[in-house]
Design goal:
Probably acts as a heme chaperone, transferring heme to an unknown acceptor. Binds one molecule of heme per monomer, possibly covalently. Binds 1 [4Fe-4S] cluster. The cluster is coordinated with 3 cysteines and an exchangeable S-adenosyl-L-methionine. This protein has 374 residues and is of the alpha/beta class. The protein is built from 15 helices and 17 strands. Helix content is 42%, strand content 22%. The chain is globular. It starts with a strand and ends in a 6-residue tail after the last helix. The structure holds iron/sulfur cluster.
């Protein structure tokens, strides 16, 4: 299948958030310009020239200064003919009017902003660099220059976060008439400051039930908004769903460019080397900057098709599954399916299998049922 999407990674941040286990580095003293040269070279080396979706993420792409940002934008738009969605991740305090004008001038049509919460105390706990005013200002800047689609990320199940806090953040985001919201519960990941604090007994997380209640509230509150849910954690107005992320959930191919970036091309799932210096060295010595590569077996592909597809409200197409694998979902998952249908965790509609509301809350349990021990 032709690959029409690309993810481009900028692994730098001006401060490291306490909960973050993403592939990122504190920007100070990093060889940012050298990295950009290598990233551009990796993109030039690829054979793809026309793309439907491009997502520039991180780290934080807006941590780049104006000159670096322009160099990157110029290169991306010179190398690729971007037909559809051109997304950038942004931090509210870094999205100055100058930067957002530049993004707009090079055709960026979607911003995904790492807001997380509007509550100052929680922003502090998370180690974020922005404040509430930055959120309003950055959205205003983006609207002023005419970015057509703005998405905010909001987190729940945070240390010391109450249900009222979460409701308030959600209300504030909705009051801004934003186009899209992604909302994720905090997951405590090893090798984060949060994890160390937790192990030393210095961090208290709300119990699991609170997380489930918050998610439940999110589903019901979003039903009363101008956005519709289209994936477990994602809600958008008509025409504002993330086309790029849907490529992942539909288990389709995409290129990954940059240190630590992953891609899925011609049946190969690959991950580039990390950290930044290793990546630069590989590119400079004219090697493929490869850390890992694997070709998922048919069984693994079927599992991925189920896990990823069930995340979306449209669900997994039974016909598409059959066309791809030559066997029906019932052939492969007969007894698990019957059990999940009986437990009202999944449902069948229009020849698609979908999670029920209850299934969305306990999603991981459902996904486990689709692991094949073959
Ligand atoms: S800005 Fe994003 S990538 Fe950077 S440390 Fe914070 S959460 Fe991680």
């Amino acid at each position: 299948m032709e690959v029409k999407s690309a993810y481009i990674h900028i692994p730098f941040c001006v401060r490291i958030c306490t909960y973050c286990d993403f592939n990122k580095y504190f920007i100070q003293n990093q060889p940012v310009d050298e990295y950009l040269d290598c990233l551009i070279e990796e993109m030039e080396r690829s054979t793809v020239r026309t793309l439907q979706t491009v997502f520039v993420g991180g780290g934080t792409p807006t941590a780049l200064n104006l000159a670096q940002l322009e160099k990157l934008l110029l290169a991306i738009t010179k190398i690729f003919n971007i037909k559809g969605e051109f997304s950038f991740e942004a931090n509210p305090d870094e999205l100055t009017l100058e930067k957002v004008k530049l993004l707009k001038a090079y055709g960026v049509n979607r911003l995904s902003m790492g807001v997380q919460t509007f509550k100052p105390e929680l922003l502090e706990i998370l180690g974020r660099t922005h404040n509430m005013q930055d959120i309003y200002q950055s959205v205003e800047n983006a609207r002023k220059v005419g970015i057509p689609s703005i998405s905010l990320d909001l987190m729940y199940h945070l240390p010391s976060q109450t249900m009222e806090d979460f409701k308030d953040s959600l209300d504030k985001a909705l009051a801004m008439d934003i186009d899209h919201i992604s909302s994720y519960g905090l997951i405590l990941e090893p090798q984060t400051q949060f994890y160390n604090m937790y192990r030393k007994g210095k961090l208290k997380l709300p119990n699991e039930d609170v997380g489930e209640e918050m998610y439940d509230y999110l589903l019901h509150r979003m039903e009363r908004s101008s956005m519709h849910q289209y994936e477990i954690s994602n809600f958008g107005k008509e025409g504002h769903e993330s086309e790029h992320n849907k490529v992942y959930w539909r288990n389709e191919g995409y290129y990954g460019f940059g240190a630590g970036a992953s891609g899925y091309v011609d049946g190969e799932r690959y991950t580039n080397v990390n950290p930044v210096n290793h990546y630069i060295k590989k590119i400079k010595s004219n090697e493929r900057p490869l850390l890992r590569s694997e070709f998922p077996t048919k069984v693994e592909q079927m599992e991925e098709e189920m896990f990823l597809g069930l995340r979306m409200n449209e669900g997994v197409s039974k016909q598409r599954f059959y066309d791809k694998f030559g066997q029906t979902i019932e052939d492969i998952y007969g007894s698990s399916l019957t059990q999940l249908l009986d437990q009202h965790l999944i449902k069948e509609e229009n020849n698609h299998l979908k999670l029920t509301d209850r299934g969305k809350v306990v999603g991981n349990l459902v996904f486990e049922s689709f692991l094949l021990n073959i």
